[in-house]
Amino acid sequence: MEHTILNDLVSRFPQLAVCKEDVAKAFAILSGSYQNHGKLLVCGNGGSAADAEHIVGELMKGFKSPRHLDVASQSKLKNVDKGLGDLLAKNLQGALPAIALDGHPALSTAYMNDCNPLMCFAQQVNGYGCEGDVLLGISTSGNSQNILYAAVTAKAKGMKVIGLTGAKGSKLSDMADVCICVPETETYKIQELHLPVYHCLCLMLEEEFFGTDK
């Protein structure tokens, strides 16, 4: 069955029609992981690091929907402390666990100083990642060495790997379980198309898990 949000993406950005099948595959991987209580790890460099943070922001709180807590979760909060719990119950939102690996400056700088700087993302995948989780590697070239190290580590831990790249073939596209290769080759143009792709995925996930406040 065609997904309305995905169809809307292609309607608004016709050039992304070539990515439609891979976006659907990426959604299936992410949805399956979240259904089994998995989490998403996201990494990228430069503008793609900002995209990683952006994605986490859309998943960890309400994006388009309010994501009210269910009655059972609200009751648990109130049972701990009536006053504080009542305020929390009214304000907390449902979240899809996601971590951007570009942050954590103390850890990152310590690892880069003491070990191999290009393996900093891989170290975090090694620490945070569990079987059934997903790694989303964002690289306009698809050949960023630190992203590739992270992808190898993720695969070794039994995680799925999703790539988000440009049109050219790459090591990441060969390694990933699915790679969304937007049809541009210049860095800024690739990044311009990455945003609607990951917004689409975030909207689809929100609808799947929080539509009509499930």
Automatic annotation (TrEMBL):
Domain SIS residue range list: 30-214
Upper taxonomic lineage: Bacteria, Pseudomonadati, Bacteroidota, Bacteroidia, Bacteroidales
Organism: Paraprevotella xylaniphila YIT 11841
Xref: Pfam families: SIS_2
Name of the protein this chain belongs to: SIS domain protein
A GO term for molecular function: carbohydrate derivative binding
Matching InterPro entries: GmhA/DiaA, SIS_dom, SIS_dom_sf, SIS_GmhA/DiaA_subfam
PROSITE patterns xref list: SIS (PS51464)
GO terms (BP aspect): carbohydrate derivative metabolic process
